[in-house]
């Protein structure tokens, strides 16, 4: 392991984060929050200084290889979360460092779980930062980094693949830098579109921007205590539904749209599964809501069930209704969706529809082999064979994913919370969703957990965001062996 | 003394061709890179053998390619074949024939390859064998296939037996499948362009133009006894199996492939979702029983080894499979197979040799419709803006009887045009033309033979 290139690259990453930390200052000054503005400037200076320091330490150079790449990706997310926590502490909005780190990691990993008990009492600048971290983390800070720094060279490919490790990791351009730029262009374009639509629906610029940030990143932070329900507007909910769905689909499909309109989206097998899943589960929940009581009017029930299904499946975690009071069937279905997540190559978390499809087909193949052992079968998705190396990687991923969830579940139960809370908290943080059920439901928060449990959840969020393998590699012994 | 022929590659096809041509009294030079094979060949055939790779200029010069009548590159290396043919043409070989393995090169890109490498006839032994195998499996009677419009359209020469619908009713009364057209009948050395009142005679060969998707419908209509579908089992998972399976997965209910080599089986299983691939030995009776091969409609042995193919065929015949087909490499043993009741045998060597022989006998005209004296042609043209036919309906063009606009490829769509259909700039039109109407074609569809890159 050559430690210098990772130090150098991470130093540059920190200087980019330092620049990003200046943006909320504008917001603070606009709303006359002088102290918070100072906190942001101080954070930015500190981050920038540390960044320069790392760049100085790593100046002696060296090539980027796989190991260094893994270290950079994991280190990048850890450092971003650490330095992103500073504004919360320095502005005095959050007192405990573990709480601040939780909030920051929850932002960058687009989880959307919060320890804030009274959100609307917090300054607007800090709340802006909270949503802004989600937007940065949504498309991926490493992808942003690759997009901004074309001179990263061949090492950029490792970094990109490690942050976007989906089963169909394909690059849109021969150069990874161009791919990253294209992805960010699409992301910016969609953000602009959503801001304009939300403004037209009657939101002010602050609400429109913050909600766009957490919608397209599938993060789910809202500066309002009641989340999207605060606006009480079916239009706003409809707009958010559409953009959550869009953010949960594979972004390379939008790139395809630039070439042939409409065809690539509907022809994509994963998108069809994803859309079908949304429609099916929404319909079941809607019927369940109407038949067992809490809703009387069908349109409201339909909109709420659709909103919650899309919000949970895309791992956004917005709420337009308190689904924790819904009948058990609906709640269980939502928990199932938490495990699935969006499409590969999207900003969503979870296991991803594609992995689930590959995993299930591979399992059916094993069933088939029980009675016809001499048959040789490939796993086909949309008429194309999935290479066996990918099938193996998916199987390993699924095992590790459930193992991580189970470990999280055990550790979170230690303090004595009920099973529903710990089960849903573990998947809500691992899947980067945000709210869970019961004590961590959409109207509650994660403040009740002890400090070390919050750190456990921070690790779960990182594991979920980097899709396990990079983190698992860093903690493995062989990784550090010479 | 006959003409001088140069054969590159003394494999199955090459040595067979060399022997046939040599026996006919021609001067034959063989280029072969394997010294053992050269020694064996020199004992068996009266021909000069040059040792080396035909893709290298000195080797071609040593083989005296410069004044040869025909250069046949039939080695197992596609790239070397193409390069050698291209060089041989430059050196002065009058004509070149190239064998390639990848069938898509022929079905989709044949014309482009022929232009780019100066090849007069590009053929694939596998593809030729596949046509014969499909005839046996599906009860077709196809003699030759030409692929047009990047493989979306096929021109098929189908032999008409007594009892075929085409010999029983005039064309007007026959409802041909959508996207197909009977273009002409070959009757002896004569070419008949039929009108609606005409009827084919038994023994004629019909020339049918059809979209690749409706081939089977056409064949079923034309054949007097089409066979019903069911399971088809293929033993062996090599390149020929791939082409055969590709054609069959669309036309049979179920296709099973039995392949001994696990890696090859895995490769094949990754190609088509609807194909069942079994890793095992097709000469193992217990495997055949376990896989219920007895209930199959047809069994094709393509294991690349005559002994295994024979063994498998005998076993399967015993099990009661109605159609048992085998690929036979050693042509000279074919009478022994027949003695054992195995009549449906396909010999790629003989087919390839026949095809090349046919090409020589037709006066080096590779066109499917050409007779001894090229009387008609099939032309593929892209409609230019300057063409008087652009933007006009077919009825308005009023093409003469010997000029048929057989098919139009527009973007991804292919159709057989009717009177009311309008031709558009950029369309690829497939024309069937009798020689006397060639000037009309130049007038209506100016331009050279299609030479565009695949889309």
The radius of gyration of chain A is 22 Å
Q: Quick one: overall form of chain B?
A: globular
Q: What is the CATH domain class of the largest domain in chain B?
A: Alpha Beta
Our estimate of the beta-strand percent of chain A is under 5%
Q: Major β-sheet of chain B, in short?
A: 6 strands, parallel
Mean pLDDT over the residues of chain A: 89
Number of strands of chain A: 3
Number of helix segments of chain B?
17
Distance between the termini of chain B: 48 Å
Helix content of chain B: 25-40%
Please tell me what the overall shape of chain A is. globular
What does this structure look like?
In chain A, helix 5 (97-108) packs parallel to helix 20, helix 6 (124-139) packs parallel to helix 10 (205-216) and helix 18 (388-413) packs antiparallel against helix 20. Chain A contains 22 helices and three strands. Chain A is 66% helix and 2% strand. Chain B folds into four domains: 4-127, Rossmann fold, CATH 3.40.50; 141-222, Regulator of K+ conductance, C-terminal domain (Alpha-Beta Plaits, 2-Layer Sandwich); 231-327, NAD(P)-binding Rossmann-like Domain (Rossmann fold, 3-Layer(aba) Sandwich), CATH 3.40.50.720; 376-444, Regulator of K+ conductance, C-terminal domain (Alpha-Beta Plaits, 2-Layer Sandwich). Chain B is 33% helix and 25% strand. In chain B, the strands form four sheets. Chain B has a six-stranded parallel sheet with strand order 3-2-1-4-5-6, sandwiched between helices. In chain B, strands 14-13-12-15-16-17 form a six-stranded parallel sheet, sandwiched between helices. Chain B has a five-stranded antiparallel sheet with strand order 7-8-11-9-10. Mean pLDDT of chain B is 85; it is low at 450-455. The interface between A and B is medium-sized, with 11 and 17 residues.
């Amino acid at each position: 392991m050559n430690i210098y290139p990772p130090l150098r690259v991470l130093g540059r990453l920190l200087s980019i984060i330092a620049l990003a930390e200046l943006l909320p200052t504008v917001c603070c000054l606009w709303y006359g929050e002088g102290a918070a503005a100072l906190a942001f400037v101080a954070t930015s200076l500190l981050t920038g200084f540390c960044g320069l320091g790392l760049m100085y330490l790593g100046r002696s150079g060296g090539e980027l290889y796989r190991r260094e790449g893994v270290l950079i990706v994991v280190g990048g997310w850890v450092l971003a979360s650490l330095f992103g926590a500073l504004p919360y502490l320095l502005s005095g909005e959050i007192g405990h460092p573990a709480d601040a780190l939780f909030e920051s990691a929850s932002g960058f990993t687009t989880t959307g779980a919060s320890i804030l008990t009274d959100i609307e009492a917090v300054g607007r600048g800090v709340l802006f930062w909270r949503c802004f971290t989600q937007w940065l983390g949504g498309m991926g800070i490493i992808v942003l980094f690759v997009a901004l720094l074309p001179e990263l060279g061949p090492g950029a490919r490792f970094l990109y693949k490690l942050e976007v490790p989906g089963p169909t990791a394909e690059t849109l351009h021969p150069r990874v830098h161009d791919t990253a730029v294209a992805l960010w262009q699409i992301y910016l374009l969609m953000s602009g579109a959503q801001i304009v639509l939300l403004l037209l629906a009657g939101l002010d610029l602050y609400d429109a921007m913050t909600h766009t940030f957490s919608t397209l990143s599938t993060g789910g932070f809202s500066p309002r205590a009641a989340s999207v329900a605060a606006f009480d507007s079916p239009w706003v909910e409809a707009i958010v539904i559409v953009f959550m769905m869009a953010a949960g689909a594979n972004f390379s499909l939008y790139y395809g749209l630039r070439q042939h309109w409409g065809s690539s989206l509907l022809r994509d097998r994963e998108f069809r599964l994803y859309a079908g899943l949304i429609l099916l589960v929404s319909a079941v929940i809607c019927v369940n809501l109407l038949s067992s009581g809490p809703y009387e009017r069908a349109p409201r029930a339909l909109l709420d069930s659709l909103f919650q299904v899309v919000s949970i499946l895309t791992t956004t975690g917005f709420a337009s209704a308190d689904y924790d009071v819904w009948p058990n069937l609906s709640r269980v279905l939502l928990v199932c969706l938490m495990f699935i997540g969006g499409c590969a190559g999207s900003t969503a978390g979870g296991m991803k529809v594609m992995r689930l499809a590959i995993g299930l087909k591979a399992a059916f193949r094993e069933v088939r082999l029980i009675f016809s052992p001499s048959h040789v079968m490939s796993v086909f998705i949309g008429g194309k064979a999935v290479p066996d190396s990918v099938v193996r990687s998916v199987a390993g991923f699924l095992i590790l994913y459930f193992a991580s969830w189970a470990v999280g579940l055990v550790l979170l139960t230690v303090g004595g919370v009920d099973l529903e809370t710990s089960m849903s908290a573990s998947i809500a943080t691992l899947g980067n969703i945000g709210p869970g059920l019961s004590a961590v439901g959409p109207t509650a928060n994660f403040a009740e957990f002890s400090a070390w449990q919050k750190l456990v959840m921070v690790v779960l969020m990182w594991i979920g965001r980097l899709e396990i393998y990079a983190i698992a590699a860093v903690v493995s012994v062989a990784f550090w062996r010479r | 003394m006959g003409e001088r022929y140069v054969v590159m590659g003394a494999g199955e096809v090459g040595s067979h061709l060399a022997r046939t041509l040599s026996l006919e009294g021609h001067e034959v030079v063989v280029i072969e890179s394997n010294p053992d094979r050269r020694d064996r060949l020199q004992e068996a055939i009266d021909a000069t053998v040059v040792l080396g790779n035909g893709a290298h200029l000195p080797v071609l010069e040593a083989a005296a390619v410069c004044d040869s009548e025909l250069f046949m590159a039939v080695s197992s290396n596609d790239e070397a074949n193409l390069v050698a043919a291209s060089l041989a043409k430059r050196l002065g070989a009058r004509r070149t024939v190239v064998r390639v393995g990848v069938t898509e090169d022929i079905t989709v890109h044949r014309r482009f390859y022929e232009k780019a490498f100066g090849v007069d006839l590009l053929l694939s032994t596998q593809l030729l064998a596949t046509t014969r195998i499909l005839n046996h499996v599906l009860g077709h009677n196809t003699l030759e296939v030409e692929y047009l419009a990047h493989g979306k359209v096929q021109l098929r020469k189908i032999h008409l037996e007594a009892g075929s619908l085409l010999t029983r009713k005039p064309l007007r009364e026959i409802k041909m499948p959508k996207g197909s057209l009977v273009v002409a009948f070959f009757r002896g050395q004569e070419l008949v362009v039929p009108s609606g009142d005409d009827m084919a005679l038994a023994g004629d060969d019909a020339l049918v133009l059809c979209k690749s998707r409706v081939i089977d419908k056409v064949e079923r209509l034309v054949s007097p006894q089409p066979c019903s579908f069911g399971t088809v089992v293929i033993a062996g998972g090599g390149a020929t199996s791939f082409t055969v399976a590709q054609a069959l997965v669309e036309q049979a209910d179920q296709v099973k492939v039995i392949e001994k080599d696990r890696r090859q089986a895995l490769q094949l299983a990754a190609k088509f979702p609807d194909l069942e691939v079994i890793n095992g030995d097709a000469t193992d009776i217990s495997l055949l029983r376990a896989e219920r091969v007895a209930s199959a409609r047809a069994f094709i042995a393509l294991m690349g080894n005559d002994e295994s193919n024979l063994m498998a065929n005998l076993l399967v015949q015993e099990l009661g499979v109605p159609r048992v087909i085998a690929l036979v490499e050693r042509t000279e043993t074919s009478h022994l197979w027949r003695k054992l009741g195995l009549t449906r045998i396909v010999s790629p060597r003989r087919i390839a040799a026949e095809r090349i022989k046919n090409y020589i006998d037709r006066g080096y005209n590779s066109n499917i419709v050409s007779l001894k004296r090229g009387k008609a042609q099939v032309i593929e043209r892209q409609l230019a803006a300057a063409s008087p036919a652009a933007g006009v309906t077919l009825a308005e063009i009023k093409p003469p009887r010997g000029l048929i606009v057989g098919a139009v490829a527009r973007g991804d769509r292919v159709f057989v045009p009717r009177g009311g259909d309008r031709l558009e700039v950029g369309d690829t039109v497939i024309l069937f033309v009798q020689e006397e109407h060639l000037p009309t074609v130049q007038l209506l569809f100016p331009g050279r033979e299609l030479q565009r890159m695949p889309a």
